[in-house]
Design a protein that fits this description.
This is Tetratricopeptide repeat protein. By secondary structure, this protein is an all-alpha fold. It folds into two domains: about 110 residues; about 60 residues. It contains nine helices and no strands. Helix 5 packs antiparallel against helix 7.
Length: about 180
């Protein structure tokens, strides 16, 4: 048990992401976006997938333009998908199924990234709906529904199901009004 605690020290990157999220929720969208942007450049394209996914997921929420929001949500999905589907190479690496990320940074449970999928697909569906792309939105909603079923029962799962249903109704209502 002691070995596990040493392998997962407090994560300064996640703390900084959390601080930016608090700024955004307090109404300082621009400062949150600036801090997340600086952190994105610091992490870099080869940075920890969990960090990149988390940061991009929240960076999307700070965007003013729906196209930019979609770009960031797609980056978050790309980071998550790349992590869960690719097997790191080299000595001492573990297969993706082992539920840890390889690399110099902290190790993160694979389940944490998998728990992002329903929310990521839901956000992308909302982005497509905002961009008046209902077919793409519906495709993402199908992926959100499929991935939410893999989650454990609880408030998070039910909240996502409710949000998926609300967005589906909104898209279907918009399509009905467009006729």
């Amino acid at each position: 048990m002691e070995k596990r605690r040493k392998a997962t020290p407090e994560d300064g990157v996640l703390t900084r992401i959390g601080q930016a999220i608090m700024l955004h929720r307090a109404g300082d969208r621009e400062e949150a976006r600036n801090r997340l942007s600086a952190l994105w450049h610091e992490i870099g394209p080869q940075g920890d997938a969990f960090h990149r996914c988390t940061l991009a997921h929240y960076m999307a929420d700070t965007q003013d333009d729906p196209r930019d929001e979609l770009d960031w949500d797609l980056r978050a999905l790309e980071a998550a998908e790349g992590f869960v589907t690719e097997r790191p190479e080299g000595p001492g690496t573990a297969p993706a199924e082992s539920a840890v990320a390889d690399g110099p940074g902290p190790r993160h449970p694979l389940v944490a990234l998998r728990a992002f999928f329903p929310s990521l697909h839901l956000n992308i569906a909302a982005d497509y709906a905002a961009l008046d792309r209902p077919a793409d939105a519906r495709a993402q909603l199908r992926r959100a529904r499929a991935s939410v079923n893999a989650l454990a029962d609880g408030e998070y799962r039910q909240g996502l199901r409710d949000a998926i249903d609300r967005l589906q109704l909104r898209i279907d209502g918009a399509a009905g009004h467009a006729s």
